[in-house]
Write a structure and sequence with these properties.
The complex is a heterodimer of chains A (348) and B (434). Helices cover 1% and strands 45% of the residues of chain A. With 348 residues, chain A is an all-beta fold. The longest helix of chain A has 5 residues. Classes of the chains: A mainly beta (348), B alpha+beta (434). At the A-B interface, strand 7 and strand 10 of A face helix 7, helix 8 and helix 10 of B.
């Protein structure tokens, strides 16, 4: 497997919400900045962003897995409406991130929680189920800080369970991806990070990283979603884009029903915003046509989304969305204060 | 193995380590330190119950009436030599070896409790199939995200006692390494008939996990509470969270009075659990989010009494929807029958392989009862939205199933190499439905 180094928070992605970003690149030899004081309750520009490296890419059927890593860093787990800060442990060697995606479409199987087993010379060193996470500039991924006994070449096995999807081609059986991971403390220490001394703490986000081999978890632009566009709305910094697709059979409905799909994403970067409880009400001329919770599904064009089969969606219908529980994904800096207070919104 | 044993560590830590090490020297050292006087078993073995698994009446109980599990355990996986059905001589030797244990120690937690079970692979040695009343399939993965090795020795012996020296002594006798056990003659050894394919050891009960937390899978910060009976830090096995022995007993057919046993080995990865999760999260994931909010669980949960208090938790699908988190106990509510689970846990923690683990031994009338229980634990219907496949989905994130095995634990009268279709009257279950 070829090893490549990828940076980069510092990029020129045009759609970024961070104008005039002039980040300063440093390595771990310098201490990472502390958590910013007075963070807004919104998506904000973090004090710094870590670069990441790709140890290798492995294939299993239609899916690929990249084993990526950076130096250990702080993050926040999310339970219900609380965040819990996870600090770096003394023996944490790397922040390890297995990134799984469907090769043809780039769709990330959001709900499939990979298992990682790290061994050396046939002896298991550690095994874990990493956290689902959201970061700038990587987007949605699984990751955790991992302790390793020292420099060396480790065998890393990433296992994923069966993937179920509304699109047949995305469905997959359980899979195993194997890697050889060369770990050297010095190499990890030298991974660069970028600081944003001028912009840190202001609302906005650093642009998505651009990598040749590994996709970010961006969902389609509103006009690239299939179906009949119903509009978009923003609440609590979360962006909701609704579309109606005739024939709900791929999603468990009937051919006569319409599938109401809602794609939720982060502002600025269009990263998928998964693992929340979302309810919808569909109103027509003051009458409720549909009211209920939305399920989640994977689809090759919709990507990961929330949806329900409804009798029909007519022009002039009003879609009301309510977030019953915020996205239950761990957060990296810049996202840990966002998406918790999301009032109901209306798409008309 | 245990490098700390001569450095003045607490006595119980040494004793447990002795069980993990095994062998004559471990037993000798153990007897040296653990001065126990265990009564011998009865001369008239017909006074012993027909159910091998009838342990509760001879187990200790706590202040709340919960059965306290025997503290020290050994599982011996055994294989017969050669193919085909065992001979009558093999059966007599096996019977003799097991009777020696019966006579050597009183049948109680203070003496010795044990069962012998047989796998589907064993019963394939016979031409006839097991009767319909016995549900004993080959082991299979029970979740989309697990990949266990099938555990298929012919037989599985489960030894249990509150005294390390007793399980070690019983093992020595079964292996033919001692002619006398607790001053009682050992007439035969199981190793005259079987080869030992695998040896697994463990412990359960207050103090033992804490004194054995210097092991992979548990962080170095010594996070396991001193009074925790299990590595994850909470009490389990509340009497209302256990099936009754009647509920797990096979009711009809020649194996009436027996039960089925599922044995899985689960690796525990508790770094996240203890170093990244908060107590709020641990209580929410083990019990239910409502318990976390109200602070219903004090310490390891002794204050809960004889149940995990699930009546104070909303339905699992409501918590999944509204909290994005479901508790392990909360998911189990859906498989209760007469307000009790349908499986009886006899599990214990382990340091086998130098890694924190759990030998999850359960008893149930039919293996399908275990499968239904495990399906509830998977929470598949609850996940996919805010609840992840394993994230915030009970304790799934921290456990990794490595092996699964199914065994039939026959009634005592058939415990020595039973045929697949025994003849003769049944001691129990004569009133089984036609």
């Amino acid at each position: 497997m070829r090893r490549r180094d990828f940076l980069r928070g510092v990029g020129a992605a045009g759609a970024a919400g961070l104008a005039g970003c002039a980040g300063l690149v440093r390595t771990r030899a310098a201490n990472v900045p502390p958590v910013i004081e007075n963070r807004p309750n919104a998506v904000y520009v973090p004090s710094h962003v870590e670069a990441m490296k790709v140890s290798g890419v492995a294939s299993a059927g239609a899916y690929r897995c990249a084993l990526t890593y950076s130096f250990p860093h702080r993050f926040w787990t999310v339970s219900i409406d609380r965040t819990e800060r996870v600090s770096i442990r003394e023996d944490d060697a790397v922040h390890l991130m297995p990134v799984v995606w469907h090769a043809e479409t780039g769709v990330v199987p959001v709900t499939t929680n990979p298992k990682i087993e790290i061994s050396e010379g046939g002896e298991t060193v550690t095994s874990l189920s990493p956290w689902p996470m959201l970061s700038q500039p990587m987007g949605y991924h699984f990751g955790d800080n991992v302790e390793l006994p020292g420099d060396g070449t480790y065998d890393v096995t990433v296992r994923t369970g069966a993937i179920s999807a509304a699109t047949d081609a995305l469905a997959a059986d359980a899979a195993t991806f194997e890697f050889e991971f060369d770990y050297a403390r010095e190499t990890v220490r030298d991974i660069e990070f970028t600081t944003y001394p001028d912009e840190q703490g202001s609302t906005g986000a650093v642009p998505p990283m651009e990598m040749e081999t590994v996709p970010t978890s961006q969902v389609p632009k509103p006009d690239a979603l299939p179906g009949r566009p119903l509009g978009a709305a923003t609440s609590g910094d979360a962006v909701f884009v609704a579309t109606a697709m005739e024939d709900a059979t791929p999603f468990g409905g009937t051919a006569e029903e319409t599938y109401l799909a809602v794609s939720a994403r982060t502002p600025y970067n269009r990263f998928v915003l998964p693992m929340m409880s979302l309810s919808a009400t569909l109103e027509r001329d003051g009458e409720t046509v549909f009211e209920g919770s939305l399920s989640t599904a994977l689809h090759s064009e919709l990507d990961y989304h929330y949806g329900a089969s409804v009798p029909s969606v007519d022009a002039g219908d009003v879609v009301r969305l309510a977030v019953d529980v915020p996205p239950q994904v761990a957060r990296h800096e810049g996202y840990e204060t966002a998406f918790f207070d999301v009032p109901p919104v209306e798409i008309a | 193995m245990d490098q700390r044993s001569d450095r003045g560590i607490p006595r119980r830590a040494f004793l447990r380590s002795a069980v993990a090490i095994g062998g004559a020297s471990a037993l000798a050292a153990c007897l040296d330190r653990e001065s126990v006087d265990v009564p011998t078993g009865p001369d008239d073995l017909s006074t012993l119950p027909d159910r091998q698994h009838a342990w509760n009446a001879v187990s200790a109980t706590d202040d709340h009436g919960n059965v306290v599990q025997p503290r020290h355990r050994i599982l011996l996986a055994l294989n017969l030599a050669g193919d085909g059905a065992p001979s009558g001589v093999d059966r007599e030797t096996t019977d003799s070896a097991l009777r020696s244990l019966d006579r050597a120690y009183e049948r109680s937690h203070d003496g010795l409790l044990f069962t012998v079970g047989y796998s589907p692979a064993y019963f394939e040695r016979f031409d006839a199939a097991l009767p319909d009343a016995v549900d004993l399939p080959m082991p299979e993965p029970l979740a989309a995200f697990e990949d266990p090795d099938p555990d298929t020795p012919d037989a599985m012996v489960h030894l249990a006692s509150d005294h390390a020296s007793v399980v070690l002594g019983a093992e020595q006798a079964l292996r033919g390494e001692t002619a006398s056990l607790n001053s009682v003659d050992v007439e035969a050894a199981l190793t005259d008939v079987f080869a030992v394919a695998d040896r697994r050891t463990g412990f359960v009960g207050e103090g033992l996990p804490a004194s054995h937390q210097d092991v992979d899978g548990v962080p170095d910060s010594d996070p396991v509470p001193e009074d925790a009976p299990l590595y994850m830090g909470f009490k389990s096995g509340f009497s209302k969270n256990q099936a009754t022995e009647d509920r797990v007993t096979i009711q009809g057919g020649p194996f009436a009075g027996g039960t089925t046993q599922h044995v899985s080995n689960i690796r525990l990865n508790l770094s996240q659990w203890y170093e990244q999760d908060s107590r709020f999260q641990r209580v929410g994931k083990m019990f239910c989010p409502a318990h976390a909010r109200t602070g219903a669980v004090e310490g390891v949960g002794d204050n809960l009494g004889d149940s995990s208090g699930m009546s104070a938790c909303p339905a699992a699908d409501d918590s999944a929807r509204e909290d994005g988190m479901v508790g392990h106990s909360q998911k189990m509510v859906s498989v209760r029958e007469d307000d009790r689970p349908i499986i009886l846990r006899r599990d214990f923690d382990s340091t086998d392989g130098g890694h924190a683990g759990l030998h999850f031994v359960t008893l149930q009338r039919r293996i399908e009862d275990f499968v239904a229980t495990r399906e509830a634990m998977n929470g598949t219907d609850l996940s996919g939205g805010a609840v992840g496949e394993r994230n915030n989905n009970g304790i799934l994130q921290y456990v990794d199933v490595r092996t699964r095995g199914n065994f039939l634990v026959p009634p005592r009268r058939l415990r020595a190499l039973p045929p697949a279709t025994p003849e003769g009257a049944t001691a129990e279950g004569a009133d089984a439905p036609a």
